[in-house]
Design goal:
The structure is a homodimer. The first copy, chain A, is an alpha+beta fold and about 675 residues long. Chain A has 18 helices and 24 strands. In chain A, the strands form 5 sheets. The first copy, chain A, has an 8-stranded mixed beta sheet with strand order 8-11-12-23-22-21-18-13, with helices on both faces. In chain A, a hairpin with a 5-residue loop joins strand 3 and strand 4 (about 105-110). In chain A, helix 10 packs across helix 12. The radius of gyration of chain A is 33 Å and the shape is globular. Chain A starts with a helix and ends with a strand. At the A-B interface, helix 4, helix 5, strand 8, strand 9 and strand 10 of A face helix 4, helix 5, strand 8, strand 9 and strand 10 of B.
């Protein structure tokens, strides 16, 4: 067959039965104008005929004509249906010959797989036809339901029955040479190949199940929020570039800036930018009073260097509420360090409540797990002290200990003078799950500043520990800062190794945790330099409100002591969401911009509308955003968020299926006032 | 007061009551390091104190500290609540002095407006305080609920009661000089000003109500689809440029094409594109079999010249289904022209059913209107013949008449020879609603080809019409083509004028209509030239399947006779959605691309993955997309879709609030491998 023949189409419905009257439509034609007779008589295309295939075509045709509606999907049939005749549609997979008398063919769709049984002796043409169909073709089957022998039954959809085939119609043949077999789930092709043919890989039951679960969770989220009087509002995607954290994607337009008089060469092309989050529009929305409570399952964009398991576009569950509380005037405030608390002493309790409601509902309806009514709360300081991380994994112990007081007077004095403390991780002989991991770690290089405490040293004596214990020590500033400490990272490494060795099995129930009372401002570092010319930058973002207890300190210039009304939601050591009570006082926001962060006029200009909106009578407000892809990845227990996204990109941001990003003609770029960079 | 003072913040809770113990927190400080005492003693900031304001500050401060939760929103209170003490939060609007004894102040939020009553003689400080607060400030009120005198009651939320103020706390003062007053709804500021300060305009109850209705409708849509086993799937926004209709927005990346060996100057910058619709990903998704039924409320993008009432980004309710029908083999097929039908003779009945279900549910739950179980169906030809439009407004008559047979033999023969017919609009003396409009139209210039039939002419005699009737005639091709005819446009003009004159009042109930059996291919014109080098282009898109009755014709080359399985949903003369059964047969799709549309290799290459997906055993499938913004605009009865979008752009695509699109530095552009166009 030459190329033309292979793409020639003949509408042919191949329905082979024995005895019964097939519903068949047949027309004979060729795409090039000549009518070729395929059977002895010319059959008008709307007459049902007995269709014994007279010729031996080696290629099969799609069915492009009416066909019977199915009666069930491939996961629906149960023992109750035994004895009935059904019609199913699905993907025909590879034959499993049992013996000469009968064969199994799986028929799969997104609901499940029905086992088809064919008896070649009884229906030789049907069997031959079925065997001629390439696996992964879509077919329609008419057959009779039978219960499987009890030993054959499986606790899966349609797992108790099988369907004996009476007739089969080919709906759409698959190419016999597919890049890989999606049904071959134990022998997955390499990821790049599967991403290139994502429409084939998506056929895998795991991915299908992940997408369905994602849809279910999204619907739960919306229903809970809807029932709690939240209004879903869509915010713009074509927005404006803001100097906030990561690099933003731009969108060229055919609009240009107005030409200064007489100088048309000074016209600049104008760009939208894709938002990293709906932060600004949502604050403006709540400031307007148009809605009391906003939510959106929003697409966000971030042009970052390919970090592990990130996508250039990702989804957040985003919400904001008016009239959030600003804390409890009667809650005791520990001004002494370290500030440990198990209470929610900041504002935004309403956000906490709705999120816990959401999460509890999701885990109950999807996992069947009942979570506590209220999640554990920990202050930033406690998290850093005990776990060396602002998103602690509290599923295991091995907590960090402050050993400052147990050191020699000399060392204590030295630490005091430099405003530091000494911490340690101590793995006792009795900490069985960590013994082998501890030995492994001893062989690996340590981070600078982390010191392995050798046996028979003074420190050990002071600590009162035997040589049985493994001890690492490190100094750090007394006031915690940053996301993690070296000992915190060591703790995670020990856990990771212990799990790989099989010594440590983490509890399976999810461990949720709120972390609150973060410092509002951090000493400026390279990451955030562009948003702070002074000594300080915002730990999270500049719109976070200070705790009411620390407002006075902020105005007195004691910036490092100011805690923010920010809250992170941590699950099993992963940050799945974060938010805060916002500044609603325009004067306070202006103070933060100008006096604390010392933004210049240009930087402040991007926030002009926010400042003005606050001056139009914005209510106290706060909100949160959850990383939806990550949440789904956790719920679906996938390695990567790629497995919970229908059409993900690779780590470097390329789409192997759609072949993007791609070059664009110089002509098109010219329309947008731009061109490829010279040199 | 200098600028610095105005932005200085003092956390001051101004709660003035008479007698009762106010909850008040007061701290005295200044942002610049000096503590200033505002009252005789230094009051620790967490002691409740009797707060008589000692000084006469002329500016008011935001409340940045804990405050009591409200007990109700501003639309909640009813007669049942009379006698109770409540706490409300909201926007304080302008005082309405009734007499010396009492005043009203409206307190508004997104739920409604509660009437506050203040008795200045009883509470002079509270009254003075309230009068000092600029309108649109956010406040908290404590007061007692009283029923209004029956004559004062209104059938609106909180319309039966009023609240007598006991105390008021200022939460956030508004600037006394706002750009406009959002509460001044009868005297709207010009649209550009309101768009620039959208966060103020959104406070208008109309816009708030529109956004809430939009959220409600979105939730209805999702719930109905969810209950019908649809899976919500997010498709990519960072996609690839496709040669499909309107211009697409591009997104520069920092990725570049691989440099050919030794030639690093030949490296091209690479771009994503923003999708005009999820068409390709959704077809690939259904082809994969991962889900049976997909839906998404999807953001779409289109870089068009500013057309009337369009946005560069807009929202579609998008869905696709596997296993859609391909029609009824027994339905009679009229091969004779004109092909009028009231039946659904194409495939995709499942899409029709779910959409009717959706629309009926929306109209019932939102409007309280019960729509018919099944909508009217009309073929494209009937729509063009009777109404001269492929989206006919069937709320009024004045149908176009084919008068060919009533003309002279000479004229008939001439028309026959040129394959044309003669049509007419006839406004009889008895068509009262159109009489005056008809006179008006006589005075306006007509489209070329439309002829006003003067009194006492032969044509009139042949038509048997008196001089009382007003008649316009026009020829057109016998086989209808395009979206409307000149007489169709004239018909709409007559209706528009008649409505403006008040002679014609259209029925208020919504008139839904399916239009089916469009020609699959159109003779290529300039609009679509880039997608057709031969004589034909796709009327809708190249993936639309032909009606099964016309498949043979297509392969025989009788392209103009082929009707597509496309369906448009029309409401009151507006197209609100459209979709089709797709081609699932790769060979057929290839035939359409190569033989009918005659796409070149480059054009076909953008569809390579779709063709291959069809070859991997794609099921028969079909879907639809509804214009969600337009649907909401109709439901909310707004002039423009801007009034149902939270942050819309102007007609020219600019965002007056966020000041986008905006220039981008040359340095940033360099990172993306591009620069401003030279010259």
């Amino acid at each position: 067959m030459n190329g033309l023949n292979i793409v020639s189409s003949r509408v042919l419905s191949s329905t082979i039965t024995r005895g019964a009257l097939p519903r068949c439509l047949k027309s004979t034609f060729s795409p090039y104008g000549n009518i070729r007779n395929l059977s002895a008589t010319s059959i008008p295309h709307d007459s049902p005929v007995n269709a014994q295939i007279q010729h031996r075509d080696t290629y099969l045709q799609a069915h492009c004509a009416p066909y019977t509606p199915r009666t069930h999907n491939c996961g629906a049939l149960t023992l109750q249906d035994a004895g009935s005749t059904v019609i199913l549609n699905g993907w025909l997979l590879t034959e499993r010959k049992v013996n000469k008398k009968f064969s199994f063919f799986p028929l799969q769709d997104s609901y499940g797989t029905t086992q088809l049984v064919i008896h070649p002796d009884d229906l030789p043409e049907v069997a031959a036809f079925m065997r001629s169909i390439p696996p992964e073709s879509t077919v329609q089957v008419e057959g009779e339901v039978h219960s499987r022998p009890p030993s054959q039954r499986r606790p899966v959809p349609a797992g108790e029955i099988e369907v004996t085939v009476k007739s089969m119609k080919l709906l759409n043949p698959a190419d016999p040479h597919l890049p890989f077999m999606p049904s071959d789930t134990h022998n997955l092709a390499n990821e790049d190949l599967r991403m290139r043919y994502r429409y084939l890989d998506l056929r895998r039951p795991t991915l299908s199940s992940n997408l369905k679960k994602r849809s279910k969770v999204a619907h739960i989220i919306r229903s809970v929020l809807h029932d709690n009087d939240f209004t879903e509002v869509e915010t713009p995607i074509l927005l404006k570039s803001t100097p906030e954290g990561a690099r933003e994607y731009l969108v060229p337009t055919r609009l240009t800036s107005a030409a200064p008089e007489g100088d048309s060469s000074n016209v600049q092309p104008l760009f939208y930018a894709l938002p990293q989050s709906p932060q600004q529009p949502k604050q403006l929305l709540i400031a307007s009073g148009s809605v009391d409570r906003y939510y959106q399952i929003a697409r966000c964009f971030r042009d970052e260097d390919g970090r592990k398991d990130r996508q250039p576009e990702f989804t957040q569950v985003d919400l904001e509420m008016a009239w959030v509380s600003w804390g409890d005037p009667h809650s005791p405030d520990t001004t002494q360090l370290p500030r440990f608390t198990e209470e929610w002493r900041i504002g935004g309790r309403e956000v906490k409540d709705i999120i816990e409601n959401l999460i509890r509902t999701i885990w109950y309806e999807v996992e069947g797990i009942e979570l506590p009514k209220s999640f554990k709360i920990m202050s930033y300081e406690e998290a850093m002290c005990r776990f060396g991380s602002d998103k602690p994994d509290i599923r295991f112990g091995l907590e960090i200990q402050d050993i400052t007081s147990r050191l020699s007077a000399e060392m204590k004095a030295s630490l005091e003078a430099s405003g530091e403390i000494m911490e340690a991780i101590i793995v006792e002989g009795s900490d069985k799950p960590f013994n082998r991991a501890a030995k492994r770690v001893q062989k690996t290089p340590l981070e600078p500043g982390v010191q392995f405490v050798k046996p028979d040293t003074d420190v050990r004596i002071h600590l009162g520990l035997s040589n049985d214990a493994t001890i690492w020590m490190a100094k750090r500033k007394r006031i915690a800062e940053g996301g993690s400490t070296s000992l915190g990272r060591l703790r995670l490494a020990l856990s990771s190794i212990a799990q790989k060795l099989g010594d440590l099995v983490l509890p399976s129930d999810p461990h949720f945790l709120w972390v609150t009372e973060f410092p509002l401002f951090t000493r400026a570092d390279e990451d955030k330099e562009f948003l702070a010319h002074g000594r300080w930058s915002s730990s999270h973002h500049p719109f976070t409100a200070p705790m009411w207890q620390d407002v006075q300190k902020m105005y007195e210039g004691r910036i490092g002591e100011v805690r923010g009304q920010h809250y992170d939601l941590v699950l099993n050591g992963m940050e799945i969401g974060g938010g805060s009570v916002r500044v609603h006082d325009a004067a306070m926001q202006e103070y933060i911009f100008s006096k604390v962060l010392q933004l210049d006029e240009k930087e402040k200009s991007s926030f002009k509308h926010l400042l003005h909106a606050l001056k139009c009578g914005a209510p106290p407000h706060g909100g949160i955003a959850l990383g939806f892809d990550r949440l789904m990845s956790i719920l679906c227990k996938t390695e990567s968020i790629r497995d919970v996204i229908a059409f993900p990109k690779t780590g470097s941001g390329t789409d192997l299926l759609f072949k993007s990003p791609a070059p664009v003609s110089a002509e098109t770029l010219r329309e947008y006032g731009i061109q490829q960079r010279n040199g």
